[in-house]
Design goal:
about 325 residues; mainly alpha; 16 helices; about 70% helix; about 0% strand; globular
């Protein structure tokens, strides 16, 4: 019963994280259309969240000595890496193509579990990933803007690899007596990510006056400060906190597949709030993603003697085994 409740809580947190992350684009697009550079919006997002989490970072300052590699890895990959690679990729290839490649991360997580950690992967988990990726291709309508740009594709793949780092590092040491508090990891990850993005985005050239004006969301004027507040507090702080905790309650591979719902949620919110209508293939693709996520998270272990990717959160291996083969990716 306890394991079932823990798994249900983990799934609820994973869905909350997907919703929070999925709402970032809807809030960011009006700011970009109002004149802010996309990289400046990313910097505001991460730097603002880092300031919010600063008291948490101070409370867990011992992590700087205990887990420096984990903090640097999370900041460089899970925060700065995903953002920088994704925005660099969409400057060269269509957004839909970049988004699809980025969400190959669940498949890469399964590859990590199977070939690096050398743990078995259920067929249901693998099938769930295949369905989710196929559904995503329909959601982003990847066929509408295909163009071959090797550098752009490699940048998008870099974003996917960094997202793998997010899921793997979020699970690092879960259940261990010396495990790092997830809030502390997030706080320092945001601080490190903000420092890195400061160099990349160069915010000193930003027109800060735009933040005091209004932006248009689907024809409705909304204060830019309100949109930024949503991006910082909900789409970043809440998104990362619920996401990391969900990975620890489930597993990187299961949480990764559920995270595919972010693209579906983003598309639906854009439909409702921005008037970007969904096509029939997008609706069908969203349904396929839901089916894939359900199959992956409900898969059961092949054997009770060890953990299986996609199995229930209660069937976790000892932490020494889970940590084997991991690096601060």
């Amino acid at each position: 019963m306890h394991a079932s409740q823990g798994r249900s809580a983990g799934l609820g947190l994973a869905l909350a994280s997907a919703f929070a992350f999925g709402g970032s684009g809807v809030a960011a697009k009006p700011l970009i259309e109002a004149g802010l550079d996309p990289l400046h919006v990313v910097w505001l997002r991460v730097a603002g969240a880092a300031l919010v989490m600063l008291p948490v970072a101070w409370r867990h300052r011992d992590l700087l000595i205990r887990k420096p590699a984990l903090l640097v890895g999370f900041g460089l990959l899970a925060v700065a890496g995903v953002q920088a690679f994704y925005f660099a990729s969409i400057s060269r290839i269509p957004v839909g193509v970049a988004l699809l490649i980025e969400y190959l991360a669940p498949a890469l997580v399964l590859a990590w579990v199977r070939f690096v950690q050398r743990r078995p992967v259920t067929r249901a988990a693998a099938l769930g990933v295949v369905l989710a990726v196929g559904g995503l291709a329909c959601v982003v309508e990847v066929w509408s803007g295909l163009s071959f740009d090797l550098i752009g594709l490699l940048l998008a793949l870099g974003a996917a690899c960094c997202q793998v780092g997010y899921f793997v590092l979020s699970d690092q040491g879960a259940g261990d007596e010396d495990a790092a508090d997830p809030l502390g990891v997030i706080a320092y990850g945001l601080l490190i990510g903000a420092l890195v993005l400061t160099v990349v985005a160069r915010p000193w050239g930003m027109d800060f006056s735009l933040l005091g004006a209004d932006a248009s969301m689907g024809g409705t004027s909304v204060p830019a400060g309100l949109l930024l507040g949503w991006i910082v507090l909900v789409a970043t702080v809440v998104a990362y906190v619920t996401g990391v905790v969900s990975v620890r309650r489930l597993s990187p591979q299961v949480a990764g597949v559920v995270a595919c719902l972010e693209a579906v949620i983003a598309t639906v919110l854009a439909w409702v709030l921005l008037g970007e209508h969904l096509s029939p293939p997008q609706i069908i693709g969203g349904a396929v993603v839901l089916v894939g996520a359900f199959i992956a998270q409900s898969s059961t272990p092949k054997a009770p003697s060890g953990p299986v990717a996609g199995g229930p959160g209660a069937e976790r291996a000892p932490e020494g085994e889970l940590a084997a083969g991991r690096s601060a990716t």
